Amino acid sequence: MTANIQLGGHPDLGESVGVTYSRSITFIPTYSCVFACGYCAFARPTPLAGLEEAAACFIRGVQAGCHEVLIMSGEGVMAFPSIRQQLTQWGFQDYNDYLSAVCRLALDHGLLPHINIGNQSELDFRRLRPFCASMGMMLETTSVALMRHPAHRHAPGKHPQARLATLAAAGRVRVPFTTGLLVGIGETWADRQAALSAVATLHRQYGHIQEVIIQPFTPHPRTAMAAYPGPDLSTLVKTVRMARDTLPPDVVIQIPPNLTPSAEARRQLLLAGARDFGGISPEPDHINPDEPWLSPEHYAAELAEWGFVLHLRLPVYPRFQTPQWLSPTVYPYVCAKSATVTNGGNGLQEQASGVVPRSQPG
């Protein structure tokens, strides 16, 4: 069977039933994090990556046909004296100043930045928005009880009040935003419903939520929750259905296909209402390195057997590709990318070379 990957289009535009994904590469400025979540195998103290390392990552992404770079790190990075010292030596005011430079560099290489670095204030979003196509942060849960559970006992930044404040701040600044639930970390069904309802309420107020990820907890060796079981398929299917019933129709439900390694599991989650696979990278998953992605062609062939079509999308969804949602700096880059994605062909490769119209700083 020939894989049927169509460039452009999106289910929220009223076209044939489709599943979207973004061709993305990940850049990790640092794995350092002030929190110690009980399920996390990501965080460890590391120096800050230099701009040369960032450029090398972006070049790899361009060569692999990516059009998005996920810029992701641990939280509370400025709490580390060694990182503050690095930033000062490199001439940056703080971590967000450094991230702005990284994003500008990504744009220069022809990649659209999507930042995910945890809790942010309204001021933080205003500083980063001029150079980002979109941003994100996992809500995970609104359960205060989990602050006493191994999941979040040593992660005060995961308090629901702090996470919801970040989501609201992103809405006030008009940042196209991704959030999600982490399923199976000790929350109840009532907790899942409450979290989804909270996201729905914020989206109805600000209109900024692009997608909600339903991500299964994956146990990792040498973590506090290594012996905890992950959620079963029936739990994930029911959670996707709950999300689809609770969230406004313009909010897309995303499932990470590498964390649902069974084709049958992916099929059931799609039938329950999921319509996006998120970023698929040519490199390993930095959060779940033992769970590799398959190729987009593999997923496309699989989907075709079930009556779905795989569509390529940008990190910022079509309805957010306006001057109201994007800064004057980022908007021309997104327009150029969107035109090539919509027209199909090899335009993504050409556009990724960095030939993008310039604009006034935003």
UniProtKB/TrEMBL annotation:
Reaction catalysis annotation: 5-amino-5-(4-hydroxybenzyl)-6-(D-ribitylimino)-5,6-dihydrouracil + S-adenosyl-L-methionine = 7,8-didemethyl-8-hydroxy-5-deazariboflavin + 5'-deoxyadenosine + L-methionine + NH4(+) + H(+)
Enzyme Commission identifier(s): 4.3.1.32
Keywords from the UniProt entry: 4Fe-4S, Iron, Iron-sulfur, Lyase, Metal-binding, S-adenosyl-L-methionine
Functional pathway: Cofactor biosynthesis; coenzyme F0 biosynthesis
Domain Radical SAM core, first and last residues per copy: 19-258
Matches recorded under Gene3D superfamilies: Aldolase class I
Cofactor entry: [4Fe-4S] cluster
Stored SUPFAM superfamilies: Radical SAM enzymes
Enzyme class, first EC level, given as a word: lyase
HAMAP family: FO_synth_sub1 (MF_01611)
Protein name: 7,8-didemethyl-8-hydroxy-5-deazariboflavin synthase
Species of the source: Chloracidobacterium validum
